[in-house]
């Protein structure tokens, strides 16, 4: 580790330092050291600190608003959910099965039990034979003007589809304000933010890490959803929203040593200002030497003496 990297890490996380942010770390360094582009180096150093990435993680503003596809007719696409933990009725039901048509917004609220299985939810009872899964045909009364009625409903559905699509475009523009469009490719390494509702055991205390990783991206579902190579002990689904992910930029990167415009890639102490081997190297002129805090004080002192002149 070079002197700049060593000084940076000591000011950020060494000794009694508390892994402060960029500007406070820069303030600590600037009180004792100086080198060009110090703030840039401090930003790179803090961004690669593993301890900070785990302890200071928060939900990011990554991912643009992505509305669901608009269905073309009623009851072609539905959403389902359960309302649990309600007071029991006289029939012992304590939950509500909510079914909403995403096209017409028509909703059905079906009372049920918390312990009902899939058959009880769908059919209202447990079928005992295959015939129980089919309903008998009921008598139908034909409409007098069925063709005109069907054409009217088709036109109404088409107009409704256009209106919903136009509204979704407005929602997408408004919902994407202030958010960043960031994507990951399979093989990228990312940090995972640990939500309290999804990882309750890993967020029992506020002193516990708020992020885990880094983990590899296995599959990209879409721009806002990814599958990670998550260990089995986490016990949750491996698909996550992009708002829970943060790029992994590496750690312990060696900060470049201070260079000058005389020779690129060389330290000041290694610069030879005279390329000839027959004569000793001459000291650099005042205009070619790099400006440091100590040299700036010396120059100010020299200018002060010149301005005062010789004593009479």
From TrEMBL:
Comp. bias (Low complexity): 275-293
Residues of the Tf2-1-like SH3-like domain: 187-249
UniProt domain Integrase zinc-binding: residue ranges: 10-58
Renumbered residue ranges of the record's region Disordered: 251-293
Alphabetized GO MF terms: nucleic acid binding
InterPro entries: Integrase_H2C2, RNaseH-like_sf, RNaseH_sf, SH3_Tf2-1
Pfam families per UniProt: Integrase_H2C2, SH3_Tf2-1
Protein name: Integrase zinc-binding domain-containing protein
Organism: Paspalum notatum var. saurae
């Amino acid at each position: 580790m070079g002197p700049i990297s060593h000084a940076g890490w000591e000011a950020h996380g060494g000794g009694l330092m508390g892994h402060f942010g960029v500007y406070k770390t820069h303030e600590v360094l600037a009180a004792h050291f100086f080198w060009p582009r110090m703030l840039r180096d401090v930003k790179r150093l803090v961004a690669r600190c593993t301890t900070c990435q785990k302890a200071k993680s928060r939900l990011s503003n990554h991912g643009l608003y992505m509305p669901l596809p608009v269905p073309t007719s009623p009851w072609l696409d539905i959403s389902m959910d359960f309302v649990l933990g309600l007071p029991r009725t006289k029939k012992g039901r304590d939950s509500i099965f909510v079914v909403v048509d995403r096209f017409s917004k028509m909703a059905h609220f079906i009372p049920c039990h918390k312990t009902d299985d899939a058959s009880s939810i769908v059919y209202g009872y447990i079928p005992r034979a295959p015939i129980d899964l089919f309903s008998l045909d009921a008598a139908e009364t034909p409409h007098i003007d069925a063709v005109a009625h069907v054409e009217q409903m088709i036109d109404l559905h088409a107009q409704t589809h256009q209106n919903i699509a136009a509204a979704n475009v407005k929602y997408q523009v408004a919902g994407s304000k202030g958010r960043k469009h960031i994507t990951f490719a399979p093989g990228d390494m990312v940090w995972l933010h640990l939500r309290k509702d999804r990882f309750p055991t890993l967020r029992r205390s506020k002193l516990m890490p708020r992020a885990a990783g880094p983990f590899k991206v296995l599959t990209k579902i879409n721009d806002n959803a990814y599958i990670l190579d998550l260990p089995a002990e986490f016990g949750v689904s491996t698909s996550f929203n992009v708002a829970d992910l943060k790029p992994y930029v590496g750690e312990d990167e060696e900060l470049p040593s201070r260079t000058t415009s005389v020779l690129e890639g060389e330290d000041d102490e290694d610069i030879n200002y005279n390329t000839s081997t027959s004569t000793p190297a001459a000291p650099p002129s005042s205009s070619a030497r790099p400006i440091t805090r100590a040299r700036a004080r010396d120059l100010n002192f020299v200018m002060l003496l010149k301005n005062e002149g010789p004593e009479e």
